[in-house]
């Protein structure tokens, strides 16, 4: 970067604050409280910083002048003792700290107050390196499982119960709410009240192993009607493909190695170790945000998972080109 380019760095950094993974572009009631608190802290701390720096510059200038004067040993600087300036400083510090304490208290209270009793119940479990997501069906009361893509109804509170299957992870969708750790052997509760529809990106925020950076979460905030339709579709078992190539893919997936670790509801695939694939093709990405959903991505992931996400539990599944084609066609048809 050239010297002139360096001046642009803060602007570029600020540009990163407006996107789909930013606590400064709030799209949820909880994130809005945190964002307000952030700007309050920024204002108070920025003001104090400028005052301290200004005081330092004045003291340096005065010191220089005084040294010039006291070069004459006959004149000694007068000892001023605790002055009015000191009292003003103490008052400023107390006011600043009190503002921060009150602001922080109010932000936490607003977040706690957002809790609703009729919240939608969702469980999210962290795995190395993906997210198991379960919705409680409000009608039947049973749990509906999916993975790596969280849908939230706009304007309604969703209570997420966070857990972990292995190591400590951290659930963070910065546009919607604060982050919260996912700790093995313990459940944490987090409320999400989205206020703006759209796609957002969540990210595991606690180092959890080699592929921590590849533990992302697609989050879609949609109207309650669209959400109900989506949840209804997720509750249904997979439909058998009509297309003969996809049907061959289904035989490979549900009768072979894939079925040991993955569930495709309505078929013989009932493995619980990996993500549920029942509606895999309807998702936006592959391998927890690692690749954008496409047939090429699915084929690449099945053939070379250890090249794309080294250390993950997904083993390479050697398939002939025709079989790889059939498998990817079937998986993308799982809408
Ligand atoms: Cu899971 Cu970092």
Give an overview in words:
It is elongated and about 95 Å long. The longest helix is centred in the first third of the chain and has 42 residues, at 29-70. Helix 8 (295-303) crosses helix 10 (321-333). The two termini are 46 Å apart. By secondary structure, the chain is an alpha+beta fold. The strands form four sheets. Strands 3-2-1-5-8 form a five-stranded mixed beta sheet. The protein folds into three domains: 16-115; 119-235, Immunoglobulin-like; 244-333, Cupredoxins -  blue copper proteins (Immunoglobulin-like, Sandwich). The chain has ten helices and twelve strands. It has helices at residues 3-6, 9-15, 29-70, 84-113, 224-235, 244-255, 258-261, 295-303, 305-308, 321-333, and strands at 120-127, 130-136, 143-147, 149-153, 158-164, 169-171, 180-182, 188-192, 198-203, 216-222, 285-286, 291-292. The structure holds dinuclear copper ion (CUA). Dinuclear copper ion binds next to loops.
Query: How many domain regions?
Result: 3
Overall mean pLDDT stands at 90
Q: In what order do the strands lie side by side in the largest sheet?
A: 3-2-1-5-8
Give the termini distance in whole angstroms. 46 Å
| Helical content (DSSP H or I, runs of 4+) | 40-55%
Structural shape: elongated
Low-pLDDT runs: none
Number of helices: 10
The biggest beta sheet, please?
A: 5 strands, mixed
């Amino acid at each position: 970067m050239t010297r002139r380019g360096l001046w642009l760095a803060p602007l570029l950094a600020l540009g990163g604050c407006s996107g789909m993974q930013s606590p400064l572009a709030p799209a949820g009631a909880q994130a809005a409280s945190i964002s307000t608190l952030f700007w309050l802290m920024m204002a108070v701390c920025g003001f104090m910083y400028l005052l301290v720096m200004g005081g330092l510059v004045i003291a340096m200038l005065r010191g220089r002048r005084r040294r010039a004067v006291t070069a004459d040993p006959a004149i000694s600087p007068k000892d001023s003792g605790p002055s009015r300036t000191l009292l003003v400083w103490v008052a400023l510090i107390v006011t600043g700290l009190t503002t921060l304490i009150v602001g922080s208290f109010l932000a936490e209270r607003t977040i706690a107050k957002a809790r609703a009793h009729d919240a939608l119940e969702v469980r999210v479990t962290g795995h190395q390196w993906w997210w198991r997501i379960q919705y409680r069906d409000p009608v039947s009361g049973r749990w509906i499982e999916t993975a790596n893509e969280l849908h939230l109804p706009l304007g309604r509170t969703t209570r997420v119960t966070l857990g972990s299957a292995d190591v400590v992870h951290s659930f963070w969708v910065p546009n919607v709410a604060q982050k919260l750790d996912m700790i093995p052997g313990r459940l944490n509760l987090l409320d999400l009240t989205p206020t703006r529809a759209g796609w957002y990106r969540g990210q595991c925020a606690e180092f959890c192993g080699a592929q921590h950076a590849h533990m992302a979460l697609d989050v879609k905030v949609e109207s309650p009607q669209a959400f109900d339709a989506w949840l209804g579709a997720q509750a249904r078992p997979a439909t058998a493909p009509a297309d003969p190539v996809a049907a061959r893919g289904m035989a490979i997936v549900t009768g072979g190695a894939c079925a040991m670790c993955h569930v495709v509801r309505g078929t013989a695939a009932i493995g619980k170790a990996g993500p549920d694939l029942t509606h895999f093709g309807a998702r936006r990405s592959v391998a927890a945000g690692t690749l954008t959903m496409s047939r090429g991505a699915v084929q690449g992931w099945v053939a070379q998972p250890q090249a794309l996400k080294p250390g993950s539990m997904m083993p390479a599944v050697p398939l002939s080109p025709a079989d790889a084609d059939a498998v990817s066609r079937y998986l993308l048809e799982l809408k």
